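re the bet — no i am not wrong, look at it urself. input seq straight from the record:
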Amino acid sequence: MQKTISSFRMPKIVTFGEVMMRLTPPNLARLSQTTSFDITFGGGEANVAMSLADFGFEAAHVTRFPDHALGHRAARFLRERGLDISTILFGGNRIGTYYLEEGASLRASQIVYDRQFSAFSEIQPGMIDWDQVLTEPSGAPARWFHWAGITPALSQGCADACLEAVQAAKRLGVRVSGDIFYRANLWQYGKTPQEIIPELTRHTDLVNASKGVLDLLFGFTSTDFTDACRQLQAAFPSVQWVADTNRIQHSATHNDLSATLWNGQTLLQTPTFTIDPIIDRIGGGDAFVAGLIYGLTRFNDRSADGAAFRTEQQALTFAVAASALKHTISGDANDCSVAEVEAIASGQTSGRIKR
């Protein structure tokens, strides 16, 4: 079925992060069994950009690939998914890679990373003209910039470049979101996330994190998610929203998913979506963030068209519906239209054939 992209062409969004080559054994085979791999590309921030391109944004992803056939294939993949790739740098020798063994029933999925010394991890501050990247061709600032906690975990250069980006975004009046789930085992260059993430958060409007992550990164001793959000906003006044997904995992292929959003006054909650069977869980959180960026942008842009969201609750429900739908789609990035997500959000989950 051909997707219909939103008729309202929204302004520019920019994301920043590593894009890896993903190798998956076909037919749910184990890594120890396989003799071949299916290949695709993805990365947390790029997954957000690809989803938003499907929703109608002019989306650009900033990354660095090696200047050889695999790097150019990865760039072409992003272009095929509708992204502006003029912001991509080329250099270095390696493309980050990960191997995914997909779980089934009671067997969990497993991931093996091979990303040390990748072209992206060697990025340095000053390589990217963020003022140019974060500006529309018209001269107006971009609408949104997104970063994730994985990027500053890779190297000091990545952390410094990410800080350059969020500082430029705030100076230009660009909204910033940060998915600060930080992957503790990636921090191998002598700095801890507690030393790096807080300064990035200082320039961030929308934070995606759980109570446990907020307590660990910022030293809170919160009683619940709302308390952690209040403490975060007291420490970082730029933060307007804090979001998190709630997952009940019955098996590797059967989950229940809902979400919460703190808007500074009220804790909003969504209905629960049952996903059974899960086709591909990778990128579910990125699909949620993309859906929330879309929803909050439409909520705040009343001049867009008649389809603009009327409440933050609608934006949140759209976001978790986008994430639930991603679990049924192969690959790292969501691949669906606004209309498909809105159908799920409205309760159309029977899976009936559309003719």
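see?? The CA atoms of residues 60 and 237 lie 28 Å apart. told u. also The chain has three domains: 9-122, 127-239, 242-355. so pay up
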